[in-house]
Specification:
The chain has 179 residues and is of the alpha+beta class. It has one domain. The chain is built from 5 helices and 7 strands; from the N terminus they run βββββββααααα. The chain has helices spanning 100-104, 106-115, 117-123, 133-158, 172-175, and strands at residues 2-6, 10-19, 32-44, 57-71, 83-85, 88-89, 92-93. It has a 5-stranded antiparallel beta sheet with strand order 1-2-3-4-5, covered by helices on one side. A two-stranded antiparallel sheet has the order 6-7. Strand 1 and strand 2 (10-19) form a beta hairpin. Helix 2 (106-115) packs antiparallel against helix 4. The radius of gyration is 17 Å and the shape is globular.
Length: 179
């Protein structure tokens, strides 16, 4: 399942995820599942056709990622693999950053970060882009709706409906490649 919230230059993508790290750190072995949220640049393309044509919109380069993950073999609700990636180099995330506050209250932590988008953008290296100020304000207004979407997806992952291995659900092979 993929949800996208789009603003002028920023987009937020939220999806369920099932992930197996091919090169895990010690203690991070085994499959993970949960919800991924990415803050991305949004790019509007040129019209392709008449003035009535739909405008192409791309979810471009990621800026920040939050992975609300749990080990598949672990206790539901543990958030034992929950982390974020405050920095990206082009398309690749920086190392996982584990935060006790994030694992203790993922929705509250996420709401706080979405409300402090200026801080998130500064950490991502975009603190001097005044063109993003209007998007930051609009995103703050939508933060409760985005957090609600995350909570609904987490509930569906815990119920076994989403966050399943590729091939175990009707759209899993497609969904595994969303984000």
């Amino acid at each position: 399942m993929l949800y996208v919230y789009g603003f002028e230059r920023l987009g937020v993508a939220v999806s369920d995820i099932y992930f197996v790290d091919p090169n895990p750190n010690q203690g991070q072995e085994g499959a993970e599942r949960g919800v991924r949220l990415e803050l991305r640049l949004l790019e509007q393309g040129e019209l392709q056709g008449t003035i009535y044509a739909a405008r192409p919109i791309d979810l471009a380069r990621p800026l920040w990622r939050v992975d609300l993950l749990e080990s598949v073999d672990g206790r539901p609700g543990s958030f034992d693999r929950t982390h974020h990636h405050p920095v990206f180099t082009r398309w690749d995330p920086g190392p996982r950053v584990f935060d006790k506050e994030l694992s203790a209250d993922p929705p509250g932590w996420l709401a706080g970060r979405l409300s402090d988008l200026d801080g998130v953008l500064k950490q991502a290296g975009l603190d001097d882009d005044p063109g993003l100020a209007a998007d930051a304000a609009a995103l703050r207004t939508c933060a409760p709706e985005i957090v609600d979407t995350v909570n609904r997806l987490l509930a569906r992952v815990r119920a076994g409906e989403l966050g399943r291995p590729p091939g175990e659900g009707p759209a899993d092979s497609v969904r595994a490649s969303w984000l």
